[in-house]
Amino acid sequence: MTIADLTSPLVISIDGTFASGKGTLGKQLAAHYGLAYLDTGKLYRAVAKAVLDAGGDPDDADDSEAAVKHIDTNALSDPILKSGPIGAAASKVAVHPGVRAALFDFQRDFAANPPNGAKGAVLDGRDIGTVICPDATVKFYIDATADERARRRHAELTGYGEDITLETVSAQLAERDARDSGRETAPLKPAPDAHLIDTTGLSIAEVLGRAARLVDAVLAKNAQK
């Protein structure tokens, strides 16, 4: 079975820890199969930016829920959304049930009705396979060691010109991991049927190769039904 043969959208969900490489994999898979791509974390970062721009508190549910009304999904490529302060604030606004509910429909619609005539979509985030797209065609959970993820994130931030130590980045990642996994609403965890990929020590091409082989295997299996 090829992508062109599909009668319903091919939906690939990618969940995983911060700086594990799930975003890179999402973009690579979308390009490889000609699918639409959505970095759902950017939605929460956009909310966080709106909160901060308004002088609000990301820990405050009312401030965060009010900010959802002012995010611009056309501005998700703004480099400021990748900054450390925005990332930290995004993790805080994401714990509020009202924020998650407001963004739920947008994500579900993106998967069910991919833009630009795409035959499917790749969504990456924290709860795609467990909450947003529990019926996704293929699910992945991406992880890497804490040291590897801290090194990657530190390189990314310093590449943007931020002055931050590796030790600080490591502490921030530990705090974020605890918050993402421990929140009451949609905690970060692998879906029961997710394919686990540890990207530690792997190149981008190697990770893509592993994931694509798994997608191809699922498509082949579905074709036999």
Write the layout of secondary structure elements.
Elements: E1 10-16, H1 22-33, E2 36-39, H2 40-53, H3 61-68, H4 84-93, H5 97-112, E3 120-125, H6 128-132, E4 138-143, H7 146-159, H8 166-182, E5 195-198, H9 204-223
Parallel strand pairs: 1-3, 1-4, 2-3, 4-5
Helix pairs in contact: 1-9, 2-3, 2-4, 3-5, 7-8
What does this structure look like?
There is one protein chain. This protein is of the alpha/beta class and 225 residues long. The protein has nine helices and five strands. Strands 2-3-1-4-5 form a five-stranded parallel sheet, sandwiched between helices. Helix 1 (22-33) packs across helix 9 and helix 7 packs across helix 8.
Shape: globular
- Return the average pLDDT rounded to an integer: 91
CATH topology: Rossmann fold
Query: Order of strands in the sheet with the most strands?
Result: 2-3-1-4-5
Number of helical regions: 9
N-to-C terminal Cα separation, in Å? 11 Å
- Count every beta strand, where a strand is a DSSP E run of 2 or more residues: 5
State the domain count: 1
Largest sheet: 5 strands, parallel
Gyration radius over CA: 17 Å
* Category by helix and strand content: alpha/beta
Q: What percentage of the residues does DSSP assign to strands (E)?
A: 5-15%
